[in-house]
Design goal:
- This protein has about 240 residues and is of the alpha+beta class.
- The strands form 7 sheets. Strands 5, 8, 10, 11, 12, 14, 16 and 17 form an 8-stranded antiparallel beta sheet that branches. A 3-stranded antiparallel beta sheet has the order 9-15-13, with no helix packed on it.
- The protein has 2 helices and 21 strands.
- A hairpin with a 2-residue loop joins strand 16 (about 160-165) and strand 17.
């Protein structure tokens, strides 16, 4: 009987030890996907932007996830985000420090959370089974903001993660390596105000170019109209 009890005790100890190792491994995996610092965050009221005080404030939105549908063409239309999957009701984390500008149900997105970050960058988290933050909340990178679900237009429980710059959706792979769950530092620049997305500037430049070309086209059209009106006036004077 003593031998049996000893064997059971050692077996239980081994099980406890193995479970402990698994827990440590999961913690390390989450930590590697989240490079957070708890430095101060200030709010710029003039520009309505949250400015991070340290460039290490970032977190992968769904640690341990795999991509089940990438950004780009899908079914004859553009898939505006990246679909990430782990398990139902898994914790969704804020990618960067920011302010929640929307939390609710929105068409095919289902339960959607939008977070505004510095320099025009916004992140979308949708199909959530439950939103855990409300509009106006300030969040830090790594805060749990929602649980994975299949609300809206979804066939399985997952996170639709979307990045937008100046209102336009862009491939989140620009900012995150979805294979390694690491931040692409070359997509950002360090400033005194924190981590700033480079693409925000390029997209603004593109939009300004578009406005310039539109103005040029309008100018050409107006010149043609004035030329026509001058010709008509000359023809009338000749007839007289």
């Amino acid at each position: 009987m003593l031998k049996i009890s000893k064997n059971l005790t050692t077996l239980n100890m081994k099980r406890t030890f193995s479970f402990g190792l698994l827990a440590i491994g999961f913690w390390l995996l989450t930590l590697s996907s989240c490079a957070q610092t708890r430095d101060s965050v200030r709010y710029d009221n003039a520009n309505s932007q949250l400015l991070t005080a340290n460039s290490k404030n970032w977190c992968y939105p769904l640690p341990g996830a795999k991509v089940i549908s990438p950004y780009g063409a899908r079914g004859g239309r553009t898939h505006s985000g990246t679909d990430l999957k782990t398990k139902p009701n898994d914790n969704i984390l804020a990618a960067f420090d920011g302010e929640v500008v929307f939390s609710g149900t929105y068409y095919g997105y289902g339960n959607l959370i939008r977070i505004k970050h510095a320099n025009g960058l916004e992140t979308y988290y949708s199909h959530n089974s439950k939103n855990l933050v409300k509009e106006g909340d300030r969040v830090k990178a790594g805060d749990v903001i929602a649980l994975t679900g299949r609300t809206g237009r979804a066939t399985t429980e997952h996170l639709h993660f979307e990045t937008r710059v100046n209102g336009q959706h862009v491939n989140s792979n620009r900012f995150f390596d979805h294979a390694t769950h690491q931040l692409r530092m070359d997509a950002f620049q360090n400033t005194k105000d924190g981590l700033i997305a480079k693409y925000a500037k390029t997209d603004k430049a593109k939009s300004s170019k578009k406005t310039k070309t539109k103005k040029a086209k309008k100018g050409k059209k107006s010149n043609k109209k004035t030329q026509k009106s001058k010709k008509n006036k000359n023809n009338k004077n000749r007839k007289k």
